[in-house]
Amino acid sequence: xxxxxxxxxxxxxxxxxxxxxxxxxxxxxxxxxxxxxxxxxxxxxxxxxxxxxxxxxxxxxxxxxxxxxxxxxxxxxxxxxxxxxxxxxxxxxxxxxxxxxxxxxxxxxxxxxxxxxxxxxxxxxxxxxxxxxxxxxxxxxxxxxxxxxxxxxxxxxxxxxxxxxxxxxxxxxxxxxxxxxxxxxxxxxxxxxxxxxxxxxxxxxxxxxxxxxxxxxxxxxxxxxxxxxxxxxxx
Length: 235
Description:
This protein is an alpha/beta fold. It has one domain (about 5-235): Rossmann fold (3-Layer(aba) Sandwich), CATH 3.40.50. Helices cover about 25% and strands about 25% of the residues. The chain contains seven helices and 14 strands. The strands form three sheets. A nine-stranded mixed sheet has the order 4-5-2-8-1-10-12-13-14. The protein has a three-stranded antiparallel sheet with strand order 3-7-6, with no helix packed on it. A two-stranded parallel ribbon has the order 9-11. β4, α3 and β5 (about 85) form a beta-alpha-beta unit. The protein is globular. The two termini are about 15 Å apart.
């Protein structure tokens, strides 16, 4: 099964959605892959962030239009079957662009069929413990996709978990506690959103899948490869 097609079928209702991507271990890849699929389905898609995201100068989002200021994005004539990237330039880090005003995203989400955004950062680590500041979920969000990298399994937390400096081993017991932690993987999800968990990196970590299968996940969960757009197991 294709991951993007499954996410589309479950999260985009009547051709409309506002989708947050949280966690670590593949948020930006999923943002790119899913938004491209949605565009190819004929939808208008806006990709952005409510925190920070890689500058499109250094990462190819496959966007049809790239905007880094309010005037440009507000005056753009939105069309079906196009993908638009919008985030503001950062005055501190050229490799990053930063969140637009959240009030502006409230306006823009009504102009596009799908608004897809990264809601936090993990500094490239496969697992994220959230702070009190994140994830930043905008009003009107209809779905949350929480991502975790399978590569973390078997390693010590201090080396693979953003926000945990302990020597705990990331195994099924750790992941079960991680799911129950108020600042863990499920933060940002609620009863009013469609919630999906993606355990990414299955293509290069197949030997770790059995450990994750021991975990009881509360929402629809895919063990998958975002790079290959392939679901290995639904749990």
